[in-house]
Design brief:
By secondary structure, this protein is an alpha/beta fold. The protein has one domain: Aldolase class I (TIM Barrel), CATH 3.20.20. Helices cover about 45% and strands about 15% of the residues. The protein has 13 helices and 11 strands. The strands form 3 sheets. A 4-stranded mixed sheet has the order 9-1-10-11. Strands 5-6-7-8 form a 4-stranded parallel sheet, with helices on one face. Strand 6, helix 10 and strand 7 form a beta-alpha-beta unit. Helix 1 runs parallel beside helix 3 and helix 4 packs parallel to helix 5. The longest helix has 18 residues. The radius of gyration is 19 Å and the shape is globular. The two termini are about 35 Å apart.
């Protein structure tokens, strides 16, 4: 413990083996202490940020059929849908008038959607709702769009960039280990493809987030492998805005029979703390009130988190798995202040909008 404290004080890097040792042998409290120390060195302020956002989904039709996802539907399903571009723009306008500054737009991998659909969404949102930031189309979506339109992923990214899209969500990473991905999402892009598309986006100029969904089939070694790959790419490009670890919600998924109980607060905090300790080149790491609830979400601020994500005016994916948690600005501000921190409303690029 003392050796690791000294390394963190010097802002030295934790190795793969040290990360495994931490998650295997250290107490939850010790992990929190190390994570807090790392956070204070990277971000000495007492601020915790959040964003007022919404997360609509333009379609739930998806041919990737991930076993962990309760949201996707076949085209033939009675409750399948594809929103028109007009409807997407209407949702964005409504969200803006309700105070949102960011729209996180994602959807299923729908082979019937033509490229012009995505291009028109970008053009119209930027033109018709200039006060909101469009944060859209994760790496697996980019891959699917390229496949369906018979283009290279880099071509798709360049087209989106030319129209004004500037940030891409880090969804679809799950755990960046190919063996694990074959178990939980065998039809989805590989870990290597996720990394390739994200690197392409970074080199074009996009800022992206990075995520990790854990609590299903992965081992501790897989988690550290994921963190290693993310840290290495951040060393190279420096274009990740933040890291967002969250937990698998089994209800209504094909994996529910195998994993009926989701990860508890202790395991969540241990992994979150490890993320902060290991990812020494990330300023912002997000604590998840949305998957863990307000109590654990508050405690996450003592395990390395200095952001709590968004208000999510609209959210459908985890709602499909019966996730019960919802919050407005007042609730999020209360969670942050009750833990002794200063709430900061931010934009997508982590610039301050308002200090509470």
């Amino acid at each position: 413990m003392s050796e690791l404290v000294d390394k963190i004080i010097r802002n030295d890097r934790i190795s793969f083996e040290e990360a495994l040792d931490i998650i295997h042998t250290f107490s939850t409290l010790e992990i929190g202490q190390l994570a807090t120390l790392r956070k204070k060195i990277i971000d000495p302020s007492n601020n915790v940020s959040f964003v007022v956002d919404t997360n609509p989904n333009y379609t739930n039709i998806c041919d990737t059929e991930c076993l962990f996802c309760a949201f996707w539907r076949k085209k033939s399903s009675k409750d399948s849908y594809l929103l028109s571009v007009d409807k997407v723009v209407e949702i964005v306008k409504t969200s803006y008038h309700n105070g949102a500054t960011t729209v996180l737009l994602q959807g299923g991998h729908n082979p019937d959607i033509e490229l012009n659909y995505y291009l028109e969404i970008i053009q119209r949102v930027i033109k018709e709702v200039p006060g909101i930031h469009l944060h859209a189309f994760s790496a697996p979506e980019i891959s699917s769009i390229a496949k369906y339109t018979k283009q290279e992923t880099q071509e798709i990214l360049k087209k989106f960039w030319e129209l004004g899209l500037r940030t891409i969500p880090g969804g679809g990473a799950e755990v960046l280990n190919n063996d694990i991905r074959k178990k939980i999402s065998p039809l989805k892009i590989s870990a290597d493809e996720w990394m390739k598309i994200t690197e392409e986006a970074h080199h074009i100029g996009f800022k992206t987030t990075a995520t990790m969904m854990f609590g299903h089939a992965e081992s501790d070694n897989d988690i550290v492998e994921h963190l290693q790959r993310i840290r290495d790419l951040q060393d190279e490009t420096k274009n990740f805005l933040s890291f967002i670890p969250w937990t698998f919600k089994p209800e209504n998924t094909f994996m529910e029979n195998k994993i009926s109980t989701e990860v508890g607060g202790d395991r969540y905090l241990r992994v979150l703390g490890l993320c902060r300790i290991f990812l020494d080149n990330f300023k912002y790491i997000q604590g998840s009130w949305f998957t863990q609830g307000f109590k654990v979400g508050g405690v996450s601020l003592h395990y390395g988190a200095n952001d709590v994500g968004g208000t999510l005016l609209q959210e459908n994916v985890l709602k499909s798995a019966n996730n019960p948690y919802k919050a407005g600005i007042d609730e999020i501000v209360h969670v942050i202040t009750s833990e002794g921190f200063i709430p900061i409303q931010r934009d997508t690029f982590y610039n301050t909008i308002k200090k509470y």
